[in-house]
Amino acid sequence: MMTLTQAHIAMIRRVSQFTGIDQNRILYPQSKQPFVVPTNGLWCSVDIFVGQSLISGIADGPQTRRLSIIQITCYARPNTGLLELNNLADSWLNHLEYYQTGQLECLNGEIAQNENADFVIRYIRVPYRVN
After folding, report:
1. By the 8 A CB rule, do 121 and 111 touch?
2. CATH number for the domain that contains residue 31
């Protein structure tokens, strides 16, 4: 059985293997490294949301499957062109969707969008299950 901690480490390891943007442009959760938001170009942040648990079997005892979501938020400055941002979002989906390691399996992802005065934003959300 994989723990939530092991799953979190596995997902962060997978994100750290992404080559679609320089790693120094990715804000990792709980990072002790200082991060300065770039004044130009794209950048991303990573969040892992723990979700619900389900009973997936009852052999000698209950088997629990945990469902979570990894969210990569990508940012671009307004009026700098959306093509790069959309290509980055596609690259994240290609990197994360259907990835498997041990008892962790990523599922199909989705993209949502938003914007504010400072950024055009793409949210790449990929649910995954453990065990």
Report:
1. no
2. 3.30.2000.20
Count the neighbouring beta carbons within 10 Å of the beta carbon of residue 124.
23
Could you tell me the pTM of the whole model?
A: 0.92
Three-state DSSP at 126 gives strand
Distance CA 37, CA 26 (A): 9
> For the chain, what is the domain count?
1
HSE on the CB side for 119, CA within 13 Å?
18
Distance, in Å, from the CA atom of 73 to the CA atom of 111, rounded to the nearest integer, reads 10
Strand locations in 1-131, DSSP E? 26-27, 43-58, 62-76, 100-101, 104-106, 110-115, 120-130
88-124 pLDDT, tens digit each: 999 999 999 999 999 999 999 999 999 999 999 999 9
| CB-based burial label for 90 (10 Å; 0-12, 13-18, 19+) | middle
The whole domain housing 35 covers: 4-130
